[in-house]
Amino acid sequence: MTVIPHKSETLVLPLSAEQITHSLRAVTQPATLMQERNNNSVLFIGNVHHDKFRISRKVTYPQNYLPLIVGRIEASSRGCIIFLRYNLFFSSFLFLSFWSVFTLLVSCFFVFYQKEYGYACVAFAACLANYTVTILNFNKQIKMSRNLINRTLNLTP
Fold it and tell me: Which among 24, 37, 86, 135 is least surrounded, fewest beta carbons within 10 Å?
């Protein structure tokens, strides 16, 4: 388990790199401030280039733990290899980092300066709760995004 939430995976597909790029472009809309609301064919928001992409699942409500999917496509003799990395968005990472460090510092303050071990335990429990909620929600969003990518690339029905 890593401290910073992320996940990596590699997909080996019998399709050409051009077919993968075309499939992803067909369901990806560039990130703009004025997004089309009624386009049901758009599944991802981001950019797809000929050998790499940066996308995230399109959502209709705010989602703090949505993963940013960074992918690299490499052609091979029998298809292509896709390297995927799921990361927290920078703002979500800042939220996790700030509150984790803050609650740890508060916990240390209560242990070393005030000698209030009950308050230190509460602050440390808040730190663990924040981290646990982030990890669990991030993993849930990874699963949903992964299923959507698999469906887009026709890996699952």
Answer: 37
